[in-house]
């Protein structure tokens, strides 16, 4: 991983450890968000006007897309963060790792680290932490109640449906010229579990290049992918032309489910909505191809 450049600005921050006066921090709340779920939560809490920078994955809500990008989701540009004069930098632990993060704390910036794990309880915990920190406790309760309402509706629907085999789901990460199979350790797989789907390739972890033999052997009932990636890669028709796809139940029946990236994997305030929506697409397909918008 590339270390942050040692420029005059960085040296000024490092000088704090030697007793220099702290860098000026804005009196107005200025928040930098380092992951998509956190950015969505901040806007949902009603403090979107205080967010001044984001990571590249923070594309929801649309208003966030106009903000400066200070992280690609893997590497944080610490100088760019400090240049925004933040009063708060927040994100999940995984997004807050890497060299240079200690510079933020040395600059008297409030750093709030949030748990990484995908899940309903953790999603609500993240909302709680940010709601408490930002004085938005009442709104945090509303957001958590909305998650519980959707999850309650999902539980009732599952009970009414009775015993049915869980559809097996293959999750693909698509980009132009690239197709990867996503593992059980992905956020998308955690959402499939919430939606009562089963994983088509048990034991698969990380991202693996699409393997036609493995796909055919798995015989998935449904192929799940991010909507933006599917569209950028030529859409459903192009996906069905990939080797092995047509030889699966998902390919033969055109059971391709595309969901908005942040909705599927963000585990933010729409966690319950995402689980309920995906459940409906898995068990109540209205069309051969289901497209889910944010």
Summarize the structure.
This protein folds into 2 domains: about 110 residues, Nitrogenase molybdenum iron protein domain (Rossmann fold, 3-Layer(aba) Sandwich), CATH 3.40.50; about 130 residues, Rossmann fold (3-Layer(aba) Sandwich). It has about 290 residues and is of the alpha/beta class.
Describe it for me?
- It is a single chain.
- This protein has 294 residues and is α/β, with parallel strands linked by helices.
- The protein has 2 domains: 109 residues, Rossmann fold (3-Layer(aba) Sandwich), CATH 3.40.50.1980; 131 residues, Nitrogenase molybdenum iron protein domain (Rossmann fold, 3-Layer(aba) Sandwich).
- Helices cover 39% and strands 18% of the residues.
- The strands form 2 sheets. Strands 6, 7, 8, 9, 10, 11 and 12 form a 7-stranded mixed beta sheet that branches. Strands 3-2-1-4-5 form a 5-stranded parallel beta sheet.
- Strand 1, helix 2 and strand 2 form a beta-alpha-beta unit.
- The longest helix has 25 residues.
- The N terminus and C terminus are likely disordered.
């Amino acid at each position: 991983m590339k270390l942050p450049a040692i420029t005059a600005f960085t040296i000024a921050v490092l000088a704090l450890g030697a007793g220099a006066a702290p860098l000026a921090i804005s009196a107005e709340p200025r928040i930098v968000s380092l992951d998509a779920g956190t950015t969505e939560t901040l806007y949902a809490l009603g403090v979107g006007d205080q967010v001044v920078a984001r990571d590249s994955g923070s594309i929801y809500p649309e208003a966030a897309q106009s903000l400066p990008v200070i992280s690609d989701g893997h590497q944080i540009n610490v100088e760019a963060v400090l240049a925004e004069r933040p009063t708060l930098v927040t994100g999940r632990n995984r997004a807050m790792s890497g060299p240079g993060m200690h510079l933020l704390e040395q600059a008297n910036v409030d750093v709030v680290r949030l748990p990484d794990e995908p899940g309903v309880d953790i999603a609500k915990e993240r909302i709680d932490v940010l709601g408490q920190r930002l004085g938005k406790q009442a709104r945090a309760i509303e957001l958590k109640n909305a998650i519980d309402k959707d999850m309650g509706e999902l539980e009732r629907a599952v009970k009414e449906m009775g015993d049915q085999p869980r559809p097996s789901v293959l999750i693909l990460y698509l980009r132009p010229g690239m197709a990867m199979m996503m593992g059980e350790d992905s956020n998308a797989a955690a959402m499939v579990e919430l939606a009562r789907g089963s994983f088509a390739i048990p034991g698969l972890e990380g991202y693996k290049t699409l393997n036609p033999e493995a796909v055919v052997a798995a015989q998935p009932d449904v192929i799940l992918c991010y909507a933006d990636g599917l569209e950028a890669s030529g859409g459903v028709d192009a996906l069905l032309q990939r080797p092995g796809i047509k030889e699966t139940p998902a390919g033969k029946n055109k059971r391709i489910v595309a969901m908005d990236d942040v909705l599927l994997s963000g585990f933010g305030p729409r966690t319950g909505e995402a689980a309920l929506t995906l459940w409906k697409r898995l068990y109540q397909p209205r069309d051969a191809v289901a497209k889910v918008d944010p």
